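Exercise: predict the fold of this chain.
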Amino acid sequence: MKVFLYDGTFEGLLSALYLGLRAGTDDLRIEAEDAHQPALFDEPIFHPTDEALADRLFALIRQEMSPMTLRHVYRLHLSEKPDAGTLLLPFLQLGFRIGPGINGLVTHPQVHPVLTMSRQVSRESHRLLGLLRFQELKGGLLYARYEPDFHQTPLIAPHFSQRMSSHPWIIHDLRRELAACWDTRQWVLRDLPAAETPDISSDEQELQQLWQAYFQHIAIRQRANPTVQRSFMPKKYWKHLVEKPGTMS
């Protein structure tokens, strides 16, 4: 089977998808080069990113299907799943035949896996908008660290650039060792090793102690419901929360 390999970028994915669509075959996989696991009868072909092809497919998806379809494609890329490109190829083949209606075919075998993964990525990003915790560093910079399941930083950084536009901040994905850095004008993605987690200011330490005390004070032991709490605030995110759920004195 032919395997179209790309460099792991969104533009690279779109380039490979464009070429896959033009090939007009279902007997094809599309994978990021660093995630490719060669099989015995694979025929891997690396395709360098072609921004012109990527831009063309981007525009065609938006025009022939819808902006929502484009969001599904982008979320599949951010899922970092090895089969994301392979799932997207038949999804887009169908989309170019039926148009915007593809977003409503939730049970179709070429659509269901894409919409399911897109919803998982979207659900986590919405959850993180309420769970991300910023801390003031010694220099006054605001800093938040987290370890999302999916590559969420490009999805949540625009929200915080609007909500906290007047103050510089860093959102640090420890798992991917990437950070979004906002300077009050624009945000950019930078490599940032997980080991480089800076010290918080003394004021921040006092505020965290006050917040933890408040969290304990307002808790009503008789009404504690850990199951419901975990449904809204999954335990895997507790590590970077100031209030430390599950600790009730």
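Check your answer against the key: The CA atoms of residues 94 and 218 lie 53 Å apart.
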